[in-house]
Predict the 3D structure of the following.
Amino acid sequence: MSQSIQSVRGMNDILPGESESWDLFEDSVRSWLKSYGYRKIRLPLVEPTPLFTRAIGEVTDIVEKEMYSFEDSLNGERLTLRPEGTAGCVRAVIQHNLAAQRPQRLYYMGPMFRHERPQKGRYRQFNQVGVEAFGFAGPDIDAEQILMGGRLWDELDLDGVRLEINSLGQPEERAKYRAELAAYFEKHAGVLDEDARRRLHTNPLRILDSKNPAMREMIAGAPRLVGHLGAASMAHFEGLQQILRDVGQPYEINPRLVRGLDYYNLTVFEWVTDRLGAQGTVCAGGRYDGLVGQLGGKPTPACGFAMGVERLVMLMREQDGEPEPEAPDVYLVHQGDAAQRVAPRVAEGLRSEGIDVIFHCGGGSFKSQMKKADASGAAFAVIIGDEEARAGEVSLKALRAESGWRDEQKYEQKREQRRVSVDRLVDEIIDAFLDGDDV
Ligand code: ATP
Ligand code: MG
């Protein structure tokens, strides 16, 4: 036998058993976004490479070392598997002139690609839900997007996700701070790692974002940006905090929160948990007023965030375990030539009425088929032998007492296997349940 091929490292299969948690998460996310008036935008997985270098910034983890870039062998175009969604979303907003008439609230979800060292909570293909708003300049939208996070954790029953916020001010305000910061890091050149030394003069703010424990203490002593913010930036930051206080959303100001991407200004925020080890940020975002202009659009204020789906699903599963797989309503057992001719039609008929059916495939004795019916968790077995088939009937037997029955009596009634005509089958099944709509 030849050797089997494995998936690419850091790009995972999500198997049944886990995929149910993903569905649960995605269903919650969709109704949560709707409740805030965000509309879905579906974006390509591949974009021209310059989009990311221009949007994200040359001196960032992503552009320096994490992008999957390649040349289109047919036309030589430089392309990149999207490492994040904001750049593509902004490109689409500009390309289709979306924000010209009115502000936009948009979201997307799907896989992102970054060439990182795979570990718990960090993968090379991972999924984000991204939320972006265009055309709102005030702190009210920043607050809305922050409060959205809090509501989702509530809806998913996730405890212990805390909020950190900071303000990065405006680029001019950061320029002075940058020089001061670089001077401080120069004084501590001995503790800087290779990344930090390289960034010292190109992007010293990025050093604040380092995850290297050896630099933690030195970084903790670094000068703070907040002293450099002008009155307008301070008012924006104060306005945001006022709303958070009014709504009763607890937060912590983290002066070292600078975010990994260059495009942010004013508000930045992260939702963090201690339950996932080192990879504790489950959601991160902020304001990026300069980006639309920087990518060639008419300057438009904007603000957004992205959640790491793998990390959130991991949290859900650590708290609640695996959701029960959904059992079918009916397992259809059949044997004999005449039965075989009618069984598929019976199954399709049931499905037309909204009843979920697993159709037994692969033959076998009634006894072995009934075992599979039991194991499937189905509420009913519908049994068709040649005799039933010829009479235009089926046998119906209730299999499970647990859920869905109108009352105990109904279950007892249906537990006895009995013959019903094919025409009556749907009514017989619906009649037994608490609410016919649920079947
Ligand atoms: P980090 O500092 O952990 O590398 P980041 O700043 O690069 O994070 P963002 O670009 O802000 O992350 O992405 C938003 C969210 O997406 C993160 O908070 C995280 O939950 C998730 N995320 C980012 N990179 C990965 C990855 N490689 N694997 C899984 N989830 C990720
Ligand atoms: Mg990163």
